[in-house]
């Protein structure tokens, strides 16, 4: 039979009647292949339910990610207990300024440094900090970061706390402006300097992984590049105590400045110890101090004597270096201060600026390691 013959049969009906559609033909018509394939490809309901469930989970995850990105995130705070490094807290924020493409490298929980230098300061020392920031201590976070990258040394002003609300408010403003502080949980008081010094070493050890930890006062003129050269020297002693070493009579008269109430435990003369304005402890020594139990170390009236007594009890090597207590700027001076007239510079706020104008202080070349 010829193909499509059913169409001619359908058209032979009575005249005037509308032709019937092909599906009314007396002969059955097989459906085309496309229609047959569509009708037979039914998706099993378990697969359909599983697909819808995956779609819903994907949409929920996308919405959660968008909301998390748009939510205001708190800035990371680099802390050791209640001690805080305000510098890294600033650089960890997403909207802080960057120094090149690698400015935020190393801003981790415990960065590795050649040395960490804590500039001990107080609430009454605002003029000293201002003078330092106008001389050898950078006055902005980028400058401080550049100094760290150039020398391998980290620098922070170290300060405790005060019950005076106004003092704390002023400190907060200064922190907001400069971001160059380490805050430690010790009452800021002259008679508690030994406690502050121990708290500094403990916090510094937990916040920074350094080969050396340096305690410095805010009234000395320092050459960071030369200090880095000194610390980079190879040493055969892992437990090292570097400073301008001294001995002297024990002051037992309460009316005198350096009175020592526990002088009877020492005798007539002090043991060998470093002057207080600047000294260095190696990492292994500081690790022992960081692990010390509360109240397990004896505290004397004077901070430098206190540290010296601890060093005497440890198997440390005393390294005497007069370049870190030079009374004038020289080609070899690392730190300059008015020894022995003052514990630091006399009139430091003005003297720091005067020294910085002297080329021998601020512009003379860094020494090679063998010259120190």
TrEMBL record:
Main location (coarse class): Golgi
Protein's UniProt keywords contain Glycoprotein: yes
Family according to the record: Belongs to the glycosyltransferase 31 family.
Name recorded for this polypeptide: Hexosyltransferase
Principal EC category: transferase
Matches recorded under InterPro entries: Glyco_trans_31 (IPR002659)
Cofactors named for this entry: Mn(2+)
Alphabetic keyword roster: Glycoprotein, Glycosyltransferase, Golgi apparatus, Manganese, Membrane, Signal-anchor, Transferase, Transmembrane, Transmembrane helix
Gene3D superfamilies referenced in this protein's UniProt entry, alphabetically: 3.90.550.50
Pfam families according to UniProt: Galactosyl_T (PF01762)
Membrane topology per record: Single-pass type II membrane protein
GO MF entry, a single one: galactosyltransferase activity
Superkingdom: Eukaryota
GO CC annotations, alphabetized: Golgi membrane
Compartments where found: Golgi apparatus membrane
Pathway(s) of this molecule: Protein modification; protein glycosylation
EC number: 2.4.1.-
Known function: Beta-1,3-galactosyltransferase that transfers galactose from UDP-galactose to substrates with a terminal glycosyl residue.
